[in-house]
């Protein structure tokens, strides 16, 4: 499986934005859900959303798992440096939570890739082309 530069760039941007949307630094809106259903359910919901986003991104763009993972790694590194520099966090917890989000996103792309292979589809979006 070869790396594709456009796929890596697009994946980096999508991963960075997904991280901001799913777990915004210092503005985590999931605290309201956590108060109602608890930490475990909240984290499961966020992870499920990340897997769904990853699968949807792969379905729409046809990105392969390796290119997405590399782009996601670039976005993770850039995001963690940004958080360290601008927010000066008290603990390294953000390193773990965003790594979990990245793993879920990559998992979604891998799930879509597996489904594509089972169905015998091409890498084109939605199996078209």
UniProtKB/TrEMBL annotation:
Keywords: Membrane, Transmembrane, Transmembrane helix
Transmembrane annotation, as ranges: 43-61, 68-89, 95-111
Name of the protein this chain belongs to: Uncharacterized protein
Record has Transmembrane as a keyword: yes
